[in-house]
Each structure stands twice: as C-alpha cells, then as structure tokens.
Design a protein that fits this description.
7-stranded antiparallel β-sheet, about 20% helix, Thiol Ester Dehydrase, Chain A, alpha+beta
Length: about 170
C-alpha cells in the first residue's frame, strides 16, 4: 500500500465529453482524479459562470463534484462501469465561486458484487468540510453495461483498455 502522500493520476479518455470529467467538454468542470490507494480525490476552482446566489457555487454543481468523485472512486477501486442509483447531499458551508476545493471519495460499504455505498466530502482551502454525500452505485461489467445500448462500442472498448486496466 502506498503512503497517504503518494498520489497517482487516474487516466481518463482525452476525447470524453462528460460535463464533470470530460477533457473535451469546453463548458464542463474537467475534473481530474488521483488516488493514494485509500481515497480518490480531485481539486478544482469553481468558475464564476457556475454561480447560484450571488457568488455562491450553485448547489447542483456541488452535487456534480460529489457525484463525479463517487463515480471515479468506483471506477478506480472496483475497475468496472457504474451508474448512480441514489445519492444524498449535505450542504454544510457555502462554497464561493473562485474558491479552491478538494473532494475525496471512499468506498463505505460493499452491499453486493453489484452495488456499493460511496461517501464523498468536499473541503475548502482552510480544510473545512463544506459538503458531503453518500450514494448507492450500481456496478456493471462490460457485458452488462453494453445491454443498455447508450454507449458505443468504440468508447466501451477504449474505456476498458485505458481506464479500467490502469
């Protein structure tokens, strides 16, 4: 096991257009993830264009950062595809646009081979907990995710080869 200070970057696909993590989404968050083999984390600054009230980050954006972190926690630690079944968000302190935040995800409980509970927490630059979530994630292998038919074969194959096998 690596130490808490030994963070490795988690690979993503450069042409992915996901709003949360897609490098090719011009208006997205472009979140990048790292792991120290205990948690998955991302750090970002929320741009002013994603404000809710005045200079506060919109709650939906906060929820997106939490959901995306939970998703990448599953992808990295379980090496599988996933879909969010449910999630609960607690907004604890305001997140202001322009603030640097850090979000960390952990597997909290394995319900079955097809479902896990994930927890994620967002901290501000002062290290204060500002939001947290808990979500139920459905796990899928390559065969089962293909049955939905919403992802093309080229994407699925590339994701399996580059992201799931890292």
């Amino acid at each position: 096991m690596q130490s808490m200070d030994n963070w490795i970057s988690i690979k993503n696909l450069p042409h992915k257009k996901c709003f949360g993590c897609g490098p090719a989404n011009d208006i997205g968050l472009k979140l990048e993830f790292k792991s120290n083999q205990e948690v998955v984390k991302t750090e970002t600054v929320i741009p002013a264009r994603l404000a809710g009230w005045a200079n506060l980050t919109h709650g939906g954006i906060t929820a997106t950062v939490l959901d995306e972190t939970m998703a990448w926690t599953v992808i990295y630690f379980k090496r599988c595809f996933m879909l969010t079944k449910s999630m609960k968000v607690d907004f604890i302190r305001p997140i202001f646009v322009g603030d640097k935040i850090r979000c960390e995800g952990r597997i909290a409980k394995e319900i079955s081979p097809k479902e896990v509970i994930i927890k994620a927490e967002i901290f501000n630059e002062a290290g204060e907990l500002v939001a947290r979530s808990e979500g139920s994630m459905a796990l899928y292998d390559g065969v089962s995710i293909r049955k939905f038919g919403f992802l093309d074969e080229d994407f699925l194959t590339e994701f399996e080869e580059i992201v799931l096998k890292q």
